[in-house]
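In the current project phase, the collection of sequences with tokenised folds has grown. A representative record is quoted in full directly below:
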Amino acid sequence: MVIILSLLGITFTLMIYLSMVKVAAKADRELERIMSEYTMRINTGNEEKPVVSKAI
């Protein structure tokens, strides 16, 4: 009985870990897309200056 419960616990933990990795990968792709879009705007020269650069 204890072995079955521990196996269930390990499986549950792995499933949570894998779903977290999936979410992180999705967020990473989204960030990559935003960064490439921003770089493209800088290269074409029509990007709006961020507020941070005014403060510096």
Notes: DSSP finds two helices and no strands in the chain.
